[in-house]
């Protein structure tokens, strides 16, 4: 990528987008069913579960507007980065007040930065987007989201492996299979082919199988925490995807609670840390 192309992509910094949607009852009911979440209250007017805003503000591009990988064609609000792999790498979410199922919300999004870095397996481009979600004019959720674009790599050039740094206080096993990935993609209208088209994921993008969606991984960690401590209130949630998790086996969700700080992580099938999260919590 030459300096002219970098400058063109960085011209997207400052672009904004305003959307208005609601966290629908149907979406929350579908998520609760997908995860067997007994703790989720799926009723109009009830407080939406943590991270349910990811079920909202879903884009609905026409079939003719999709790229080869199933994502919307590049350009528009997000910069048209040409590196072929694109993934949700991380988010920092702060919950200022609850949002309710069925109420209309407004989200203002802004491109904060477009950065280029060399990686172990090739070029990387990080796009950072900030979101402010308001209900009745008041700030309810603030999120800083990082997307990563990278070159196609062979399966032998996976990211560096990491072992857990903390002793787990609890463990849950989650079966990662095509049904789970399909149902979450359906709820969020996510047509990225790496989550359901095995041939494309393996032969075109170099993965070892179907890839667990990053927001689903984060939601699985919240679900595990709520099943261990149902009286917990999450004030903030930060997660980072370090390496992909593939279908075909069980992923291990582990965590520990230390005062108002929780640490949660997902181990992939090889026992390495794939996703980390640090919720800021209070216990009611």
Walk me through this protein's architecture.
- By secondary structure, the protein is of the alpha+beta class.
- It is built from five helices and eleven strands, in the order αβαβββββαααβββββ.
- Strands 1, 2, 3, 4, 5, 6, 7, 8, 9, 10 and 11 form an eleven-stranded antiparallel sheet that branches.
- Strand 4 and strand 5 form a beta hairpin.
- Helix 2 runs antiparallel to helix 3.
- It is globular, with a radius of gyration of 18 Å.
- The model has no long low-confidence stretch (mean pLDDT 91).
Summarize the structure.
With 284 residues, this protein is α+β, with helices and mostly antiparallel strands. It has helices at residues 3-10, 25-35, 178-187, 198-204, 214-228; strands spanning 16-22, 85-95, 104-119, 122-135, 138-150, 170-176, 232-241, 249-258, 261-267, 273-277, 280-283.
Write the layout of secondary structure elements.
Blueprint: H1 3-10, E1 16-22, H2 25-35, E2 85-95, E3 104-119, E4 122-135, E5 138-150, E6 170-176, H3 178-187, H4 198-204, H5 214-228, E7 232-241, E8 249-258, E9 261-267, E10 273-277, E11 280-283
Antiparallel strand pairs: 1-3, 2-5, 2-7, 3-4, 4-5, 6-8, 7-10, 7-11, 8-9, 9-10
Instruction: Compute the average pLDDT.
Output: 91
Q: From the alpha-carbon coordinates, what is the Rg to the nearest angstrom?
A: 18 Å
Please, what is the oligomeric state?
single chain
In one word, what is the shape?
A: globular
- Low-confidence parts lasting 5 or more residues at pLDDT below 50? none
Give the terminus-to-terminus CA distance: 51 Å
Q: Please count the helical segments.
A: 5
Instruction: Give the helices and strands as they follow along the chain.
Output: HEHEEEEEHHHEEEEE
Strand content: 35-45%
The helix-and-strand class reads alpha+beta
Strand tally: 11
Sheet with most strands = 11 strands, antiparallel
């Amino acid at each position: 990528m030459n300096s002219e192309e970098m400058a063109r992509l960085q011209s997207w910094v400052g672009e904004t987008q305003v959307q208005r949607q609601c966290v629908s009852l149907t979406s929350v009911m579908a998520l609760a069913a997908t995860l067997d979440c007994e703790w989720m209250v799926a009723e109009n007017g009830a407080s939406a579960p943590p991270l349910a805003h990811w079920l909202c503000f879903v884009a609905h591009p026409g079939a003719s507007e999709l790229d080869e990988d199933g994502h919307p064609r590049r350009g528009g609000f997000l910069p048209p980065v040409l590196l072929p792999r694109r993934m949700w790498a991380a988010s920092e979410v702060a919950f200022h007040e609850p949002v309710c199922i069925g109420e209309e919300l407004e989200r203002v999004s802004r491109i904060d930065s477009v950065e280029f870095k060399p990686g172990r397996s090739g070029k990387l481009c990080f796009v950072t987007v900030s979101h402010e979600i308001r209900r009745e004019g008041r700030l309810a959720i603030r999120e800083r989201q990082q997307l990563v674009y990278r070159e196609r790599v062979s399966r032998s050039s996976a990211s560096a492996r990491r072992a857990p740094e903390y002793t787990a206080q609890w463990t849950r096993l989650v079966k990662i299979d095509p049904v789970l990935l399909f149902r979450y993609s359906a709820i969020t209208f996510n047509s990225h082919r790496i989550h359901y088209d095995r041939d494309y994921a393996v032969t075109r993008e170099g993965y070892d199988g179907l890839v667990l969606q990053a927001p689903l991984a984060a939601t699985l960690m919240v679900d595990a925490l709520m099943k261990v401590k149902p009286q917990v209130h999450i004030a903030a949630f930060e997660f980072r995807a370090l390496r992909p998790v593939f279908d075909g086996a069980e992923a291990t969700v582990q965590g520990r609670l230390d005062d108002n700080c929780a640490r949660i992580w997902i181990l992939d099938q090889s026992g390495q840390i794939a996703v980390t999260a640090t919720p800021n919590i209070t216990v009611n």
